[in-house]
Amino acid sequence: MPNGPVWSKKLSTEIAKAVIGQDVIVERLLVALLANGHVLLEGMPGLAKTLLVKSLGQALGVQFERIQFTPDLLPSDVVGTMVFQPKEGTFVPHRGPIFANLLLADEINRAPAKVQSALLEAMQERQVTIGGLSQPLPTPFFVMATQNPIEQEGTYPLPEAQTDRFLFKLIVDYPSNEEESTMMQRWGQVTSQPVLAAVSSGQELLALRQEVDRVYVAPEVHRYILSLVRSTRMLAERTDNPNAKRQLNFGASPRASLALFQAGRALAWLRGDDFVAPALLQELAPEILRHRLGLTYEAEAEEITTDKIIGQIIERTPVPTVVKS
């Protein structure tokens, strides 16, 4: 069984045949796989978000399905429906594209509330309901969703209950000058994308999670995780300074603590460590917390971002020194 850096390297190398750059995003996607979490990718059009998730599915060797979310999408288009069989005179379930190991929900914020509700059950409980009957989803199961940060016409804001189910909210940025130049050289005369090989499997991924669970988290690091998350709630309630201006309507839920704990172990394992260091949690905190905080109107008017608030919390929170048994 491969160790973390070896497994990460073989998947990243295979994905790099189709996607140039985005090394940090690829690493975070691998962390999400190991931590059994869903991912929300936000970025401008043309940044290969769809290609990235599709390439991940091919390299991982799991069943991949893509749904293009639109305002007229119905829940049955996602989870499936009951189909009448005339010969038997009965209804049988017809499974939708959600019955896959890796589901790409493209432009997820374009779907109405009923579709989001159907997806919410799948994300939380790894099952869907068709015709009043619960249908378990394949194992492993992940949702990786994309959204455009600038185009708001024909979109629906994601409910807080749904965004809280995403382990990460990753911001996909423009490639560097060198990466964009490489893209032009590599794909300028090519009309088809390369075929990626399956270098891992769903079974191997499930086995590797047992390795991740062995990564040590010291009691001091436990308390550090709680301090980071609970500080967001204190800011919302202003219990630390009642006279200060409120910047948050609400702080992060307990899912944020669980996400930092498990994602920290997954990232440590990927990098070949057998314990979680506070620096890893500081690195992960913006991507785990940014979509779990609700800014006040005053903070938005002053162009204060959740990332800025998270950075201030990290600066103010004492860092533990004892991290390994």
Structural overview:
- The protein has 325 residues and is of the alpha/beta class.
- Strand 3 (80-85) and strand 4 form a beta hairpin.
- The protein contains 13 helices and eleven strands.
- The chain folds into two domains: 4-187 and 199-207, Rossmann fold (3-Layer(aba) Sandwich), CATH 3.40.50; 214-316, Orthogonal Bundle (Helicase, Ruva Protein, domain 3).
- The strands form four sheets. It has a five-stranded parallel sheet.
- The radius of gyration is 21 Å and the shape is globular.
- Helix 2 crosses helix 10, helix 9 (219-237) runs parallel beside helix 11 and helix 11 (278-289) packs antiparallel against helix 13 (306-316).
- Our estimate of the beta-strand percent is 15-25%
Name the strands of the widest sheet in spatial order: 2-5-8-1-9
CATH superfamily of the largest domain: P-loop containing nucleotide triphosphate hydrolases
Helix content: 40-55%
Query: What's the total number of strands?
Result: 11
Architecture of the largest domain in CATH?
3-Layer(aba) Sandwich
Major sheet details = 5 strands, parallel
CA-to-CA gap between the ends?
A: 25 Å
CATH class of the largest domain: Alpha Beta
Order of helices and strands: HHEHEHEEEHEEEHEHHHEHHEHH
